[in-house]
Design brief:
Chain lengths: 522, 336
């Protein structure tokens, strides 16, 4: 009797265990590692995927669009932009038919409140606005209301338009409904605690729920001024393990896997139910040389190292083809991108350069990098390549934060690291890679080159796009010959996507900077 | 010694243990040659930003001052503000701990049930097929890494057989029961939400089994040997010879007496369960304290790691205190 009961219970259990709940056609399920999510407040967010979730909930003054495979700014909340004669004041006139997700009209006061709130909060992204001359101290002068529908920003220099607009595409111009935020204010936090996991914006989606380390749920905003999006619900499920993400996608319980490494993707390529979408990323990976260290002081030695590396081997063998062979510091997909890649492995040339520099038998040097599998593999590859020209590189693996601490103090000899970009303009990249005065990568590598620094600073305020483009081209070629970097590749963003989900490629182009959920449909 | 002075003595000991744990947790976190501020602001940040952030978080203070701050805060249950979530660590723990507790409790139920059954069976049928099976099962349990067995079981039960879900606490499209304790099984029972109960139950089976597998093995081994010991006793022979049914002899006379060491091991493995949760929760996308600590470790969120670890140590010593206390009530010889 007892036994029969047990068997019955077991059969019952199994009968309701039939799984595979299929995803409804108006819903997209994303399996992603949400461990990096800190806040979904437009004034505090800085990380990549969280930033895109915030973008989906808040309409911004300016956003990016794709034109001929290049990211260019487009006005979103503004219908008109006027730039003063001196090129330092930008006046945006807001559209007057835009509503927040609760139906309230978007006002210019909300916009001003949003940006000032961002400056008052002083989170990680605040340097972006500070870098063009707007800060907490001067914000009442530099940000002004103009008439009923206008807002003006005054910068400290006549920066190129692409830079200013590029910076304004960051989440901090995503207008917040000030009234709603202030209703939820606690201890004068301007709604920071509440906005961390609620939204009060005018974007295509509304943040319905965020259960940390579990689920983020977005629902379509019925008041969205560019029309309600086709996909009504977006669920981001926290799936920390890449192999679990893979199983969920292959099985159809998730439409997209967000953090799947190249090696797993290669194994998924054969599945006919899904396809792999790739778009150029916004990061790069390089070998950098400290110009204040011994042999590296000689530009010929630096050139020899650039000629010793097997770039194609790195892209094909280590990245499994999921990387772009780009050697200049301006990313593909950006204004000013230089398509020429002058370097390939040429052992004879490298040896000759070393001999000319007085090191016919090479030398011994330390090669530092961080703990990820890719970095370790790259370090071994570079070590093997350098050995071919007689340079003995000793690999030192360090925890990333420790490596960067050392790097910031010019404490390295050779280093393999990468740069992730903040807005799609070459200025940001040129400042980092070529201008030592910006206290960034060029400085860390002690490349005190005034010609490169001057042209970087001049290009920043050059109004004519064609002239500006040529300046970056000249700089890139100068940097190829003299600079302290052997740039190995530009990163690629990659996702396995179920075939039911359409429009992913258009939505994802430019990812890192932009992800347009409204382009998705089923 | 009476029972109350025993309790007071144990409580004092617990305070000392917790202080020791705090010291170790704090100094390990600070001995690691890593820079939490650097990790927080990222590789792109210029030095000024790093310094500004360091001062803001108080990491520019001498280590002794930081330690005193940590200890005085911990006494009040204040582990500081998590660098990453920006919430008080204690609040985060309150959010995440119920999920871990639920997982550990179900794991212990599964492992006690399986462990005792296997242990008894292999003692009774010593050196027969079931005994060999149980031994192999136990050895595998002790030696297979949690994340590996977890992934294999997901592959089998979710991907191949489609019997059980592939991770998380609930199905993608169901809503959690109203929060009372934060433990979905209990909350859904209390609110009579059968849909959620069924869902939560199916979701917890695999992770709880994986988490409890290691303990199942220990419990089975202990039960087997203590059962063998008991079955040799005179009173068992007496019971058999007076013609009692075999089952009655085994369960009433044998098992009851053999269970005492098993109770000890249950108290011990409970700590292991909380600790094993760190890996199990990552594999099964289980949003508990283990995940919280892992995420904290990866981003060098010291307050979260120190607070989370100390909290687990606290629960562990509490569990041991309870076990010892029960013992003292059951067996006066223990009160020394």
């Amino acid at each position: 009797m007892k036994r029969t009961a047990l068997v019955l219970v077991f059969v019952l259990l199994l009968s309701f265990a039939a799984f595979s709940a299929k995803i409804p056609s108006d819903t997209v399920v994303i399996a992603a590692n949400t461990g990096i999510f800190i806040t979904l407040d437009p004034g505090g967010v800085y990380e990549v995927l969280p930033g895109k979730v915030v973008d989906a909930c808040y309409a911004k003054l300016v956003d990016l669009k794709v034109e001929n495979e290049t990211l260019v700014p487009r006005l979103v909340l503004a219908e008109k932009l006027d730039i003063s004669e001196d090129g330092m004041t930008y006046t945006f006139t807001l559209k007057d038919d835009v509503k927040f997700s609760n139906g309230d009209p978007v006002t210019v006061d909300d916009m001003i409140w949003t940006v000032k709130r961002f400056l008052k909060m002083g989170k990680s992204a605040v340097w972006l606005l500070e870098s063009i001359g707007i800060n907490l101290e001067n914000m009442d002068q530099t940000i002004q209301k103009v008439g009923e529908r206008g807002v003006s920003f005054t910068f400290d220099k006549p920066y190129a338009q692409n830079i200013v607009l590029g910076i304004l595409t960051n989440q901090f111009t995503g207008v917040i409904n000030a009234k709603v935020a202030l209703e939820h204010e606690e201890d004068g936090d301007m709604g920071e605690a509440w906005l961390a996991d609620h939204s009060a914006g005018a974007g295509p989606y509304v943040l319905r729920q965020w259960e940390r380390n579990n689920l983020i749920l977005l629902e379509a905003n019925p008041y969205y001024f560019e029309g309600e999006p086709a996909i009504k619900r977006i669920m981001i499920r926290d799936v920390p393990e890449a192999s679990n993400q893979r199983l969920l996608v292959e099985k159809g319980d998730a439409d997209v896997g967000w953090n799947i490494p190249a090696q797993l993707l290669e194994e998924m390529e054969g599945n006919p139910d899904l396809h792999i979408v790739t778009v150029p990323g916004h990061g790069n990976e390089y070998v950098a040389m400290n110009c204040s260290y011994g042999p590296l002081q000689d530009p010929k030695v630096r050139l020899a190292i650039k000629w010793a590396i097997d770039y194609e081997g790195v892209v094909d063998q280590i990245m499994g083809g999921y990387a772009l062979l780009v050697q200049g510091f301006i990313n593909k997909g950006y204004f000013g991108y230089v398509p020429e890649n002058p370097f390939q492995q040429n052992i004879a040339k490298a040896k000759q350069l070393l001999a000319e520099a007085g090191y016919p038998n090479g030398f011994e040097i330390e090669l530092m990098t961080s703990t990820t599998d890719e970095r370790k593999a790259e370090a071994q590859k570079v070590q093997a390549d350098l050995a071919l020209v007689g340079i003995k590189a000793n690999i030192v693996i360090q925890q990333a934060s420790q490596m960067y601490a050392k790097y910031r103090q010019q404490g390295h000899q050779l280093i393999i690291a990468g740069w992730g970009n903040d807005y799609p303009d070459p200025d940001n990249l040129a400042q980092a890679h070529a201008n030592y005065r910006a206290n960034q990568l060029a400085w860390r590598n002690a490349w005190y080159d005034d010609w490169a620094a001057d042209i970087t600073e001049a290009a920043q305020i050059e109004p004519d796009p064609e002239v500006r483009k040529q300046m970056y081209r000249d700089l890139t070629f100068y940097w190829y010959d003299n600079g302290p970097f052997a740039l190995m590749y530009q990163t690629i963003e990659k996702w396995p996507v179920r075939n039911e989900l359409k429009g992913f490629e258009e939505a994802a182009f430019g990812y890192g900077m932009v992800f347009d959920f409204t382009k998705l449909y089923k | 010694m009476n029972i109350w002075s025993f309790l007071v003595k144990r409580l004092l000991l617990m305070v000392i243990v917790l202080f020791g744990v705090s010291c170790i947790v704090f100094f390990i976190a600070h001995v690691i040659p890593a820079d939490p501020v650097g990790a927080l602001v990222g590789g792109n940040a210029p030095p000024e930003v790093v310094d500004r952030m360091r001062a803001k978080l108080g990491y520019d203070q001498p280590i002794a001052i930081q330690f005193v701050r940590f200890i005085t805060g911990a006494v009040r249950g204040d582990f500081g503000i998590s660098i990453k979530t920006n919430n008080p660590v204690m609040e985060d723990i309150r959010n995440y701990f119920p999920a871990t507790m639920e997982l550990a409790l179900v794991a212990i139920v599964i492992s006690v049930f399986l462990g005792v059954v296997l242990g008894v069976l292999s003692a009774v049928h010593r050196n027969r097929l079931v005994d060999h099976f149980s031994r192999v099962f136990s050895i595998l349990g002790v030696s297979m890494p949690v994340f590996w067995i977890g992934l294999l079981l997901i592959l089998l039960f979710y991907y191949k057989l489609d019997w059980l879900p592939g991770g998380g606490r609930l199905d993608f499209f169901s809503y959690p029961p109203d929060r009372i304790t934060g433990m979905y099984l209990l909350d859904s029972l209390l609110t009579g939400n059968w849909e959620a109960f069924k869902d939560a139950f199916l979701h917890i089976l695999l992770p709880a089994f994986v988490l409890g597998y290691n303990s199942t093995a220990s419990i089975a081994r202990i039960t087997r040997s203590s059962m063998l010991e008991v079955l040799k006793q005179d009173y068992i022979r007496t019971a058999k010879s007076k013609g009692l049914r075999r089952r009655l002899v085994i369960y009433r006379h044998g098992l009851r007496n053999a269970l005492i060491p098993t109770v000890t091991i249950i108290g011990l493995v409970f700590g292991g369960l909380l600790e094993g949760a760190v890996l199990t929760e990552t594999v099964f996308s289980w949003p508990g304290l283990g995940r919280y600590i892992t995420a904290g470790l990866l981003s060098l969120d010291y307050p979260a790691v120190m607070g989370g670890t100390l909290y687990i140590a606290f629960i562990y010593s509490l569990a041991n205190l309870i076990v010892d206390f029960l013992y003292a009530i059951l067996d006066p010889r223990m009160r020394t």
